[in-house]
Amino acid sequence: MEELLEMITWSQLGIHDKPVGLLNVDGYYDPLLALFDKGATEGFINQDCMQIFVSAPTASELLTKMEQYTRLHQEVAPATSWEISELGYGKGAPADS
């Protein structure tokens, strides 16, 4: 679950521009998809961001949807902009214990 949400977040931030696919066999992820829909309806999730992930009950249908995906951003952020050392974090900070 954490990895799924991380990939969605990375797309929102422009770190990658690929779709996030969810294979929803036998409706297993229906409650999660309903939660996302509720969040969008209530204004907690931007409607554009709802297009980042695609779901389907079969692998072939999911692949078709992923091939038809229209990316959210025109370009992705350069990798160096996401490196902690480049942002100055950790300089002079005590080591984690």
From TrEMBL:
GO cellular component: cytosol; nucleus
SUPFAM superfamilies xref list: MCP/YpsA-like (SSF102405)
InterPro entries in the cross-refs: LOG_fam
UniProtKB keywords: Cytokinin biosynthesis
Gene Ontology BP annotations: cytokinin biosynthetic process
GO molecular function term, any single one: hydrolase activity, hydrolyzing N-glycosyl compounds
EC number: 3.2.2.n1
Enzyme class: hydrolase
Catalytic activity: N(6)-(dimethylallyl)adenosine 5'-phosphate + H2O = N(6)-dimethylallyladenine + D-ribose 5-phosphate; 9-ribosyl-trans-zeatin 5'-phosphate + H2O = trans-zeatin + D-ribose 5-phosphate
The organism's place on the tree of life at top rank: Eukaryota
Family as reported in the entry's similarity comment: Belongs to the LOG family.
Protein name according to UniProt: cytokinin riboside 5'-monophosphate phosphoribohydrolase
Originating species: Arundo donax (Giant reed)
